[in-house]
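Entry for the shared binder. Reason: the reviewer on the internal report wants the predicted structure included alongside the sequence.
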Amino acid sequence: MCKNLHIIVLFLLFAVSAQGQFIVRDTSSAPSSLTDTAWLRRKSFFPLPVLGYSQEKGLEIGVAMLYSFYTDNKNPDRATRNSTINLIPAITTENQFKIDLKSNIWTRGNIWHIKSNLRYHNFPLYFFGIGDETHYNDRSLLNNTRYKAQVEAERLVGGHFYVGASILYQHDTYSSKDDKGIYNSLSLVDKAGGYVTFLGLTGIFDNRDKENYTRKGWMLKLNAAYAPSFLSKHPLFKLDAQGVHFISISPKSTLGLNGLFQTLQGSELPFYLLPEMGNDLMMRGYYTGRYRNQNYLAGQAEYRYLIDPKLRVRLWFIDLKPKFALAAFGGAGSVFSNHDFGLSGFKPSYGAGIRYFYDESSRLTIRLDYAVGEKRAGEPRQNGFYFSLAEAF
């Protein structure tokens, strides 16, 4: 298999970020070096073209578009977090297509928090098997068509505590694309695909200063969800727990800590719903799904250092004062079956990256990371480049 080749077309200096703005004066001291005494809130729209090539997909052409805004412009509250809508469509020369539409909405004073995700994709993926000792040469290339709709809504009930509910519907179909590898020889639950509807309850504690490029505070989240048999192919229960903590070391330095635990329980567990290790958020450096099993536990730490070169870039209609941040991160994670947890199963993840603040008022960043992971005998060390909008956590 040829490794993926990603060609990033980055127009940092051509971000469209001045569609509307207003300023509210604040006489208090600035909470960090990313803000000043003029409280600037503005809408911003950032399109990011991305080209890619891989053997299984051919040439991929896509664009990531993020629109940031505030829901309370008519009656602003300084505490209100910015809301975002993110659209990512992509097509390939092999007649494959995917589209993701995500929203993250905060109402005035952060009383309500509503997230949604609509996804369709017809894209190939690699399946390596089940467990934490899968082999690269056993991989199978699979066709996968997925329909996904997810909504989460939480309300502030007092202090920094939120409670809410969630619903997730997902329908998958799978088939072998090249008739090679481990997929055809394994007995898997719902090998050709299936459907599931999870109904969940959520509890959150969140006292972060900002949701984007956080400098200080905690966020603890627990979601418990059940898939009833009359809405799903199999009755299932899943639990997702996540925690983050940020420590402001100095005006330019921040340490972030992040941990998560996921579990899927039931008498019959579809292989494609098992928790997967690896993505651009946690356990960077691993192909998503290289390791999967009934339980997934991982943690990471990230150090960020702000760089303000005090430069002003003027070019045609562009007038910017660019700011950047450097980051170094490291962590470990493991997938395991019930009653089979062991420290020897944890795998490393570490790397470094750079962030560019394309919307400083909302602390929105473009993130470029390089990460490495485990080196298994007879295989190259696992690694990956990640080019994303917003921070990993």
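Summary line for the report: Residues 1-32 have pLDDT under 50 and may be disordered.
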